[in-house]
Design brief:
By secondary structure, this protein is mainly alpha-helical. It has one domain (7-116). It has helices at 7-37, 47-63, 70-79, 86-95, 103-116.
């Protein structure tokens, strides 16, 4: 580790370190946003694994200070379900107020439905 002999050298090193850290952070946020935007259930993935993967992406974004309204998360998760779930998606959309539906409530409903299948 090299030492700095002046305040200017210290400042220059801090500036370079911060710039690299800031760029890495922006890259990670960009990748998480891309994962969020392209999110859908994977082939052979069960609902719990899908939800776990979704939670990791969302928690990552929120960890970087991104704010995502819960109703947006609910809609994203509903529309990420496979086509075989179209009747359940329609039932949820018609029966629930998506503005007030909590993500945990949605997951409980979806998991209950998956278990009954």
């Amino acid at each position: 580790m090299s030492s700095c002999s002046s305040a200017k050298e210290i400042w220059d090193k801090l500036e370079v370190t911060h710039k690299d850290t800031s760029e890495a952070k922006e890259t990670k946020i960009g990748l998480l946003n891309l994962s969020y935007e392209n999110f859908k259930i994977e082939p052979d993935e069960d609902i719990q694994k899908m939800f776990d993967r979704f939670s990791i992406i969302v928690n990552g974004l929120m960890g970087y200070g991104e704010i995502i309204m819960e109703d947006k998360l609910v809609r994203k998760l509903i529309y990420s379900l496979p086509e075989s779930w179209d009747s359940k998606k329609t039932a949820i959309i018609e029966a629930k107020n998506l503005k007030t539906l909590k993500l945990d409530e949605l997951m409980g409903s979806i998991l209950t439905n998956e278990r009954s299948l």
